[in-house]
Amino acid sequence: MRLHQVRAGRGGGRRGAAAAALVAATVATGCPQAPKVDPGLVEVATAVDRSEILAGKPGEVVLQVKVTARQPARAQRPPLNLAIVIDTSGSMEGPPIESAKEAVRDVLGRLHGGDRAAIVSFGSVARVLGAGTWDTDAPPPELVEAVGKIEAAGTTDMRAGLASALEATAAWRDQDHLSRIILLSDGKPNDPLGLVDLATLAGSQGMAIVAFGLGIEFDEALLTDMARASGGNYKYLSGADQIAERFQTEILKLETLVARSVSVEVVPGPGIEILEVPGWDDLSPGREAVIALGDLVGGKEREVLLRLGYGERSHEARVELADVKIRYLDAYGGSGFQERTYYVGLRATEDAAAAEATQNQAVRERMATVHAHLAAIRAAEEMRRGDIAAAGQVLSEGMAAYRQVVEASDEVLLGREEYGRLDRLRQAVERADAELAVRAREEAQAALDRDGVGALAAPGQPVGTTTATAGLLGAGDVVSTGSATGAYYTEGQAAPAAMPAAPYEWTDQESEMILEEHSGAFEGLWGD
């Protein structure tokens, strides 16, 4: 029913009163409302790396699913249920804590009527410094006061901080509110045990975590795991001057929220098996996969790639590859939960040339890009742990796999963001390995100068043993050295067991580079 405004003209007072009474009665009795319609801002596209497969042979195919949110006509979002969780341990003292306070003030100034926020600090203990609801566009006084209570002291009880945030926002976690945790930390937690599980719990309650790692002392692997477990995001901040800007960006993104709780379900057809969903390690291979993509804001895209296996098919057979189901809550149009299904099929042929001609190189290269992002993330985390050998192997294999798919000159490859990132990390690993080799030779030479021939390893004995080796060397024996993990031994003798590789200590500048590349790969893989 459409209600028209009635204006009382000359002599129309009685008619105006009657119209007003009709309107009031209609509202009171509950006029049926037309159902809201999905505004169609969420678009889905599917593609495969080949539309025809070779008959009579089993094989694999790559399925690409893209979910895109178009930019809405105007900015709007549901009321926000926000917890701002700040690491106030002693390492945050000085510019970091002052910048964090300024960033919180900026966030409070950007919220408006109907929003609710809680400010939580964690050091040796966790404290809910304040919580309040916006009745107007002005921040609640208790929250303004809470910002002044943020002080740096103590250790880093992150688990208590997250638990307090969940408790402080529990009453407002519902379908009518958009829930978020903004987490800022510059260090490793006292005890990481259970933090990813707590993040998973937060995500199951609709409380996605946007985790910010500040400086070079935090655990980037832990924060990324927590962000992903909750359906949230992770960002690296190299300096305190970036805190306010990144907080602001996260809040502004929510103003163009289009869809909430977006998920993609892939149901394989007969004889089709899911072999891999790269980037979603918690999904086991098998018959179907449900990938939770979180919330989607205007102008952003999420992508899922799946490697599917199939058995032998006869010539001209129609292959039912999969049904792709998209589900989400319409946050912009308010039309409730939406679900759409897309069918993907292939054709089998005996003509190898025809099958080859249907290859979609763009999809194959997207799969190579995803694997390159994963390799960069794994390598960066190994580098941060100081395991140069493991990082080098991951990078070598990742670059080789990428080159197998993307056939191009070195210049073109290095110009691609994902391959260039692998190469930059590889160069850092090579520099570190060369430096470790120099250190190993210098230490071995110093031991030789100090202890004489006894510093050399006897056959079968590790370097550094105290067993005397006097008399083992004869005239003409040659002393050889290996790389960073090598050992001294004589020609003709079996080389002793290699010394364990010493963890490499990165400079601050090198650490910042590694964290930047890690964060870039995360964004490239799972979106911004």
Description:
The protein has 528 residues and is of the alpha/beta class. The chain is built from 13 helices and 17 strands. The protein has helices at 13-29, 95-110, 141-147, 158-168, 195-204, 220-230, 243-254, 352-357, 361-385, 388-405, 410-414, 417-451, 508-526; strands at residues 42-48, 52-54, 59-69, 80-87, 116-122, 126-133, 178-185, 208-214, 233-237, 257-268, 272-276, 289-297, 301-310, 318-330, 336-349, 479-480, 489-490. The strands form four sheets. The chain has a six-stranded mixed beta sheet, with helices on both faces. It has a five-stranded mixed beta sheet with strand order 2-15-14-10-12. The longest helix has 35 residues, at 417-451. The protein starts with 12 loop residues before the first helix and ends with a helix.
Summarize the structure.
The protein is of the alpha/beta class and 528 residues long. Helices cover 36% and strands 25% of the residues.
Main attributes of the structure:
single chain, five-stranded mixed β-sheet, alpha/beta, 36% helix, six-stranded mixed β-sheet, disordered N terminus
Q: How do the helices and strands line up, and which of them pair or pack?
A:
Layout: H1 13-29, E1 42-48, E2 52-54, E3 59-69, E4 80-87, H2 95-110, E5 116-122, E6 126-133, H3 141-147, H4 158-168, E7 178-185, H5 195-204, E8 208-214, H6 220-230, E9 233-237, H7 243-254, E10 257-268, E11 272-276, E12 289-297, E13 301-310, E14 318-330, E15 336-349, H8 352-357, H9 361-385, H10 388-405, H11 410-414, H12 417-451, E16 479-480, E17 489-490, H13 508-526
Parallel strand pairs: 2-15, 4-5, 4-7, 7-8, 8-9
Antiparallel strand pairs: 1-3, 3-13, 5-6, 10-12, 10-14, 11-13, 14-15, 16-17
